[in-house]
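RETRY 2/3 - previous attempt timed out on the joint model. Re-submitting the same 574-residue input unchanged.
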Amino acid sequence: MGSARVFLLCCILAIFFHSVLCAKSRHFKWEVEYMHWAPDCVEAVVMGINGQFPGPTIRARAGDNLHIELTNKLPTEGVVIHWHGISQFGTPWADGTASISQCAINPGETFVYRFKVDKAGTYFYHGHYGMQRSAGLYGSLIVEVTDGEKEPFHYDGEFNLLLSDWWHKSSHEQEVDLSSNPMRWIGEPQTLLINGRGQFNCSLAALFSNSSSSQCNLRGSEQCAPNILHVLPNKTYRLRIASSTALASLNLAIGNHKMTLVEADGNYLEPYSVSNMDIYSGETYSVLFTTDQEGSKNYWISVSVRGREPNTPQALIILNYIPTSASNLPNLPPPVAPLWNDYNYSRSFSSKILALKGSPKPPKKHDRRIILLNTQNLIDGYTKWAINNLSLVLPATPYLGSIRYGLNNAFDHKRPPENFGPDYDVSKPASNQNSTYGSGVYMLNFNTTIDVILQNANALQANVSEIHPWHLHGHDFWVLGYGEGRFNEKNETQFNLKNPPLRNTAVIFPYGWTALRFVADNPGAWAFHCHIEPHLHMGMGVVFAEGVQHVKKIPNEALACGLTAKMLMNNVHK
Ligand code: C2O
Ligand code: CU
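RETRY 2/3 succeeded.
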């Protein structure tokens, strides 16, 4: 194995010269296209990559450079791919957000995503244009520690579970429904998918349920046949989990087995032992479990809906103890998830997630605090979500280019508000439910410490307040705390500055607030939004930008639309 020897030599040299010689470039050629597929045994059209759904899993090592040459084979729409959880430090144009970091890639065109994966962890990627994530454009991205480094925990083998939710209505029809006046809600998903597989017509555990669904009769070769995790007794396994759901908040459990959370969003956790776990859209985790149960049996791994009245059956896969036959169904009923609206349970689960000892600590003080009120509103009869009464509408020219080149007409230059009125009562529907569209940017001073308080409120209807998982691009933030009711400056005394977890996604619970802190140290323009696809589509997001003057030359392909395209043409003709 000549190449292995060269690689080894390179690593030895690297130790001497203290450099990153071992870092590898990994090249991928991808084509995005629509294809027929039956994710839940019902044939549909999905957005696939290289003929696969979900898209190919990327495995890399920390420090590697990825080159993904993405060709858009969709006949009539643009596409982009966002690398969820990757910082894109020095390559903000590769963040894959249409209208923010780049122009959508036109049909027939190719864009090369070049970026470094700098931190080991569990990540995923997904479409970030229109509602393409709902169409099935997603896949796993796993970054292992660099050679010679060790994870702070031991395991004998690993599995990867990418969770999502699936509707029988196409994402285009969903988009029209959501944008109609009056709005037509998309409802609950028909099926939950694990690694792109679920069963709509039948249940693996029909024997145990009193529902009318029939027992599945699958050969195993179907596109919807469940994954089986084959394990050896008395070993420890790492389960990597990512949620790419469009809507559903989930709870995962392994029958008879405890799990220990050790990683979240690419950051190590103080080991936290649980019998089931909540997981919100945009979050990733690693959990360890030990195969210490009776080896002559198989066990269920279940994924259930939380936070909304469930109308979607549990997703199930089988944990198979070798050499027991994998076709023996577990002889116990599947795990029962906590009640969907037991928010005390959810809050308590989330607040026990803490950083591993020795993790980076947050700065003691903030330079600026931005309070973001989350509301559901009406604009000329259209149902929208708004932040401090502005519903985000993305401009034709991506922010990164227009800010970098000072194109002043590309978006709203009015500063979006830092707070909301002192009289606003978050526990009731707003007295004035009107709102307006906005495309303004929160300009952050480079290298300053920003606090964001996400404030939840009552939606349009009385006694309704939903969960929103907020995801920040380009950074991790520390989750300083959760609280109920309206945030008050005095709540600062409750902040955890000792061992708050670093995350890129955090939820706000109904009627509550969540406090985040991050350092604005990554030159670029970054989305910060609710990860529920229909909510983002209805305006639930903001844009942050910092240090854009330090951004190096943006590739022309990222600028080939709107006012930046005009600018490029003028430069050529000068
Ligand atoms: Cu995974 Cu902007 O989102
Ligand atoms: Cu939301």
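The chain has a mean pLDDT of 95. Closing ticket.
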